[in-house]
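Reading group handout, session on sequence-to-structure problems. Before we discuss, look at one worked example. The prompt was deliberately terse, the way you'd type it at a terminal:

> structure Sialate O-acetylesterase domain-containing protein

The input record follows.
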Amino acid sequence: MKEKMKTIFFNLSKKLQYACEEILLMLMFVFLLFYLRWITNHNYQHHLLITTRSTNKLNKQIFILAGQSNMAGQGGVHNFTWDGVIPHECQPNPNNILRLSVTIKWEIAHEPLNYAVDCLHNCGVGPGMAFANAILKQDPNFGVIGLVPCSKSGTGIHTWIRGNMPYDQLISRAKFSLKHGGTIRGLLWFHGESDTKDKYTARYYKAKVMKFIQDLRDDLKSPLLPVIVVVLRYPKEPFDRKFKFVNVVRQAQMDIDLPNVIKVDANDLPVESDGLHLTTQGQIQLGNMMAQAFLNTKLQSLKYDSNKIYHMSS
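And the output record:
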């Protein structure tokens, strides 16, 4: 009888022990769920607070970024995959640098800036974040910067006309960027590689890019909108054989004769192994050059000197 009672009590104690362990595990699971929910909500509220605080400011200083793959950003991209390296010059500035996303919403700007606008997994570092950070470093009172990426890889100048998707999307995004207040301060334009492959397109590049700038200014009702034009870099050998007429397009870019057009020469900036796309460091240098060029002219008269070209040493 004693042995039977011992067995019953032993089994009962085991069941109670298992039950307690199960209850403890359930309580720990419930606690973990509440904790994760709190963390997620806390981070979301923090993100929302920062984003709302920034996007509600009505004095956003807006820059449109357009062109081809170099403006979209290929810094750090190898074998169609971005290495994920973000130097401090390209780090987010949550309170002061925003990005208009592909879903037409202002958000905290971060690399890769052109993600989903043109490229996905192979989109890397471009000049935009370095440009914005350099502006704020030199002028901390510049205000909240809103970046509007609109680049489309592989698009020749003939596609950047009214009625075509790249141009119409640019105009649509640019107009939306003004919806909650702000001023479009300029267009950053890095384009022309595709047009260096053919003699005909290279020959007419100047006329077409000037028409693009004039139409852009007309459609945005900003007849003197500043435009920073990046003068193409010569491709490295042996890739230069594919881009035979780069000298023609470079000269066309240098010869643009419109007010408020600022030229920045990308020649000699470091490029990736493909001989064409700027490295991450090259993009940072370019962003700094563009910022310096913009700040050097923004307080001058409305008619900027379109004949001055900014080089690496400028």
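Points for discussion. First: The chain has two domains: 1-56, 59-310. Second: Residues 12 and 245 are 89 Å apart (CA to CA).
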